[in-house]
Amino acid sequence: MFKKAKKGILLVQLGTPDSSSTPDVRRYLNEFLMDGRVMDIPYWSRLLLVKGIIVPKRAPKSAATYATIWDSQKGSPLLYYSKIQQEMLQKELGEEYHVELAMRYQNPSIESALKKMEGMFLESIRVIPLFPQYASATTGSVIDKVMEIMRTWQYFPEVSFVNSFCEDDLVVATFTEHALKYNLEDFDHVLFSYHGLPVRQLGKVDPSGELQCNDDGCATCKVETNAFCYLSQCYGTTRAIVKKLGLKADQYTVCFQSRLGKTPWIQPYTSDTLHDLAKKGVKKLLVFSPAFVADCIETLDEIQVEYANEFKALGGEQVAMVESLNDNPKWIQALKRLAVNN
Length: 342
What we know:
This protein is an alpha/beta fold and about 350 residues long. It is about 45% helix and about 15% strand.
């Protein structure tokens, strides 16, 4: 009698340096920015820009920033919470499943995770990129890498991928629960700050190449959720949370952070939004960053330190951050549902 094979679940996060040292941060940035889906320009231009200009200049500064959020015991916050999510999901799914964790860039690598799973002769592998909204530079890159590695396998279990979960009710409920730890009436405005993308990447989802997107997106993407439009999914997540919280249209703003380079990125930029709100007399902000399922450098430093200081310099008084999904049991239930519902 054949022994029943387990079902595999591969959770994949974006990545983190192995430490906050400059050499480790440099390795991470090189791998991350040399990905053709992240820096979507011709290879030789990308090589010159990344290795000749961006990384040499950015690595020491980023290393100093990572050092401020790095825990002497837990290490990288992103990796720490991702491991907890893996462990909690494994416990929820039980012995019929095997859950692995990988980082798209650096360690634990997708290669090492799949190598382990290959030797287990699993019945199936369900890949869950841990990005609520689909983008070619995140979810697309994970799927691309997994397929590239598995191409060499001599046997193939059933393989499936989660495309997005931008409006998942348990994800929305978790963000809402974390927001309600605050008294919403204490804040003048609510900010939904998503990770940005170059505008050109929005149009690339159209194989015809004819789609041209405005810097702040088309009117349709702000009211309808498109399966492959990152911007429309950001607005979809926002609408779901806003509805749950009962916010009115004038009580919140959607914006985009982490711009890199001089080409147009999705607008409005978070920094510009802070300036506009400060001019209107807004003093206290509550900020969501629903592109992330675990607190990381973008939430712990970019928003809570960099943007908070910028806002206070403009006359603002407070920037409070809504905790990411992290180890909330509701989020683990959402992951479980994504894992078992193919």
